[in-house]
């Protein structure tokens, strides 16, 4: 018999012994081992999925934007919702000057405000994003800008008395909550008084791009000057940030010179800032990993250690009929790995269901978007941790197995 055939035979015997214990001889101990690993793995994956949800980016950039100019005191936080934060001033003229720079493909100011939008009896808070439309600009806040007229008509060179377009692009989430379709009318509750201010018309309903980090959130894209007029930000021509599309490197210093008191952040720079802000989710994930390993190992070691002791006569019999110590070790290690992997699979299922329920409850109660992200790689992660628990338990089971040597002498 070849060594490979012998090893496969030992693995088969180990799996059959495990199945027999689970169904006949020791179902309770086996169930406790599997559930211990499953609960530990499920807890670890839920915490990790929540951490991934926390560090998921929520910038308002379009795919081609390479720089963000943000107020110095606001930092990267202005890239999300910067209500009541420090803002940039005189943004239309400064953006126009940037667009005259040959190194800049396109630049647009962006204002972000949370608005209460009404459509008949329906009312919903949405994330309002104001931009200056252009064919060169693809997506902002995950929504396409093509449905907005080019330029910013209402701005009218700073007089804010030009044509009020009322054009707005709604995300599918916002349209569903408001119960509206394309060409329907909207109004903004609490808009600054003035002719037509707050009157809007839906020109498109689009899916929010997943990579924007705003997928699922109710978002509304409008002309910058109209959002300024609605919120009262036309005084000083204010906006939260300026998005700059460019393939040229090293523009940070030039951009900061144009905007005193502001920082120019590159795409990679923002990623670095995000990684710094993700320390807490990382710590959560590491703590959950350690807890899962400790709890899972203790459960399996305790229950299977007792089982090895209870099976001492059976193991001694195997020794007496010619099973070597290595062969007995294979039986115990395969048995431990089989139990922990089954527990890992069950834990992955529990974690997926728990994450789905948590996201559903959170979006219904407190959060505009899912708070946990169950990435497919978490399946591999869970199985890997389960296998690691089985490997950690194996030396303890082998030490317990050595105690059967005295029983061998009795049998002989």
Description:
- By secondary structure, the protein is of the alpha+beta class.
- The protein has 2 domains: 8-56 and 279-411, no CATH class; 73-260, no CATH class.
- Helices cover 50% and strands 16% of the residues.
- It contains 12 helices and 11 strands.
- The strands form 2 sheets. Strands 2-3-9-6-8-7 form a 6-stranded mixed β-barrel. Strands 4-5 form a two-stranded antiparallel sheet.
- A hairpin with a 2-residue loop joins strand 4 (139-140) and strand 5 (143-144).
- Helix 1 packs across helix 10, helix 2 (27-55) packs antiparallel against helix 8 (279-310) and helix 8 (279-310) runs parallel beside helix 11 (377-401).
- The longest helix is centred in the C-terminal third of the chain and has 41 residues, at 325-365.
- It is elongated.
- The two termini are 28 Å apart.
- Residues 57-64, 74-84 and 268-278 have low confidence and may be disordered.
Estimate the global geometry from the Cα principal axes. elongated
* Measured distance between first and last alpha carbons: 28 Å
Task: Give the count of structural domains.
Answer: 2
**How many E-type strands?**
11
Mean pLDDT: 79
Which secondary-structure class do the elements indicate?
alpha+beta
Give helix and strand order, one letter per element, not per position.
HHEHEEEEEHEEEHEHEHHHHHH
Question: How are the strands of the largest sheet arranged?
Answer: 2-3-9-6-8-7
* Largest sheet, strands/sense/barrel: 6 strands, mixed, barrel
Low-confidence stretches: 57-64, 74-84, 268-278
Round the Cα radius of gyration to an integer and report it.
31 Å
Q: Number of DSSP helices?
A: 12
Helix content estimate: 40-55%
Q: What is the strand content?
A: 15-25%
């Amino acid at each position: 018999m070849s060594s490979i055939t012998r090893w496969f035979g030992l693995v088969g015997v180990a799996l059959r012994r495990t199945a027999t214990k689970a169904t006949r001889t020791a179902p309770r101990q086996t169930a406790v081992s599997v559930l211990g690993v499953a609960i530990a793995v499920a807890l670890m994956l839920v915490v990790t999925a929540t951490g991934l949800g926390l560090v998921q980016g929520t910038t308002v950039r379009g795919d081609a934007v390479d720089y963000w100019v943000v107020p110095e005191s606001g930092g990267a936080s202005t890239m999300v919702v910067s209500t009541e934060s420090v803002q940039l001033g005189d943004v239309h003229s400064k953006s126009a000057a940037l667009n005259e720079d040959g190194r800049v493909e396109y630049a647009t100011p962006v204002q972000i405000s949370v608005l209460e939008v009404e459509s008949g009896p329906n009312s919903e808070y949405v994330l309002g994003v104001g931009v200056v439309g252009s064919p060169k600009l693809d997506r902002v806040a995950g929504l396409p800008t093509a449905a907005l007229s080019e330029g910013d008509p209402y701005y009218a060179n700073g007089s804010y008395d030009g044509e009020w377009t009322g054009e707005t692009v709604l995300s599918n989430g916002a349209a569903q909550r408001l119960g509206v379709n394309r060409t329907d009318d909207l109004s903004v509750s609490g808009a600054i008084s003035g002719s037509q201010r707050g009157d809007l018309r839906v020109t498109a309903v689009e899916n929010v791009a997943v990579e924007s980090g705003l997928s699922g959130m109710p978002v509304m894209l409008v002309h910058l000057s109209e959002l300024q007029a609605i919120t009262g930000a036309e005084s000083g021509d204010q906006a939260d940030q300026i998005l700059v599309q460019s393939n040229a490197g090293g523009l940070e210093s030039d951009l900061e010179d144009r905007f005193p008191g502001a920082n120019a952040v590159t795409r990679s720079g923002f990623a670095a800032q995000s990684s710094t802000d993700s320390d807490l989710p990382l710590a959560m994930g590491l703590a959950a990993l350690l807890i899962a390993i400790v709890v899972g190992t203790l459960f399996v070691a305790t229950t299977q250690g007792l089982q090895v002791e209870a099976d001492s006569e059976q193991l001694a019999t195997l020794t007496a009929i010619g099973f070597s110590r290595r062969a007995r070790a294979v039986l115990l290690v395969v048995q431990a790995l089989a139990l922990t992997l089954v527990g890992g699979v069950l834990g992955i299922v529990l974690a997926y269901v728990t994450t789905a329920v948590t996201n559903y409850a959170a979006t219904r109660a407190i959060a505009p978007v899912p708070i946990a992200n169950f990435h497919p790689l978490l399946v591999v992660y869970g199985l890997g941790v389960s296998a690691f628990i089985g490997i950690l338990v194996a030396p303890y089971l082998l030490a317990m197995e050595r105690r059967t040597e005295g029983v061998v002498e009795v049998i002989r």
